[in-house]
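Worked example

This section walks through a single chain of length 511. The input is the sequence exactly as stored; nothing has been trimmed or padded.
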Amino acid sequence: MANKRKAGSSLLATVTLLSTVLAGCSGGGDAGNAKSKGEAGGNSDSSGKEAVIRVWGPHDFMKGDESPGQQMVKIFNEKNKGKIRVEMKYMPWAEYNTAIQAAVTSNDLPDIFNLPQNIDFQQVVASKWIRPLDGLVSDAWKKQFYNGAFAEGVNVIGDKTYTWPIFGPQMNQLLYYNKDVLKNAGLDPENPPKTWDELRAMAKTVTEKGKGDVFGVVFAMAENGYASNTVTGFAAGINNLDSDGFNYKTGAYTYVSKAISDSVKFILDLKKDGSILPSSYNLKHPEAGALFGQGKAAFLFDGRWRMWLIKRDTPDAKYGMAALPTPTGQPMIMHHTLANNGGFMVSSKTKYPEAVGKFIEEGLASELFYERFMKSGVALAPIEKLNSDKSKYPYPEYEAFAKLHQEVLRLRPDPAVRNPEAVKVLVEIGGMGQPKIKPSFNEILQAIITGAEKDPDGALKQYNEKMSKGFKDGVEKIKQSGVKVEPGDFSFPNWDPAKDYTDQDYAALKK
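Given that input, the structure is written out below as tokens.
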């Protein structure tokens, strides 16, 4: 569900293959000319037949006839009947990555598609695999997005725009609380905990009164990435800098920080109290979410995607959402970036660039789609005007959801904006999470929390050393290939984590 594109280890090996294929695709396509493919009448081909646009993607909002994406396509097709017909195809990530590789090899890419995982976006642009959106969409369309949604080096290359953010602001972790469970335990269902001590005490009370049937907390500990998201989420409430295990102020990994260590110990305290539902260590997201919705636990830590899934799977559940508690009760701040290159883009080989532009502007990235997207409760839109319109909210909880994102999230600095060549380092190491390094942070945390790892601080220290070395080696390897990049490109000493990092802040570093 998340917009975060997970780096699959099997895909790391595809970069070289795709690089070779991309080079072969670079000829014969004029990526800058909207009329270059012989389009005579704008939307249909020279014979007067309707333009058939193929759209491929791996997102759930495209899955099934009742999904927001397919609903939008149906309305768009009816409106443009006889001129444009859109065929939208959903595939899960693993299948999708393979399908795109095959399409590149056969020189038969769909007109609009999502960038596969762990592929160098700049290399895709340089190889003319895709064409810019400039000339296809209007300036007004681009201006509808949040400030910061487009950035040079990320989704803008050489002043040409190649993609747009699919999702709006996203919180990877927040606190879900079951109001009925709290009420049955004699606690205030409208007053969620604000401190770690309050959370621990409330979880303990629920567990004691639950008598082995209802517990304070339910986890999805068997889910890949769950433990790491939870721990770094709690750590962010201590110094606002540890939300993803890397400190962009200092340019260093933080797995040995006191914030991470204290957050791990807090989870262990919940375990020591007996407040964690025992089956949690073997649960994945769907099971944990269902048990929470069924009233088997008072609290669940999860990302923004859990909201609509609770509504779907346990529609009668009465629940609320809040920011994760902090040690002192001081409101937490978490960080994100809006501009990304993981969204939809246009093939340079499309026969119908004008029709594609019309579909993007009036369908795929328009209010027609995002109103339905929001009504489904999946996430916030990347269009601020829509997120501010409460008439678009599908249910009362969504208002708290929108308010949380506004209050908690701030834009963090992005190394790719400071130096676009930094992306090559990220591709080399698989992102700042470096999935090639084993055991992973999540696996270490699982071992610590289940008791298999007896030296938590030692394991975290060793992991931090591996991550730091992997990052340093990655930068050095890219430098040796002739790319101008330095470790300092990943540090932003002028960053105030309580504020959005702005264009002016990037400019100040260059002085």
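What to look for: The CA atoms of residues 288 and 487 lie 40 Å apart.
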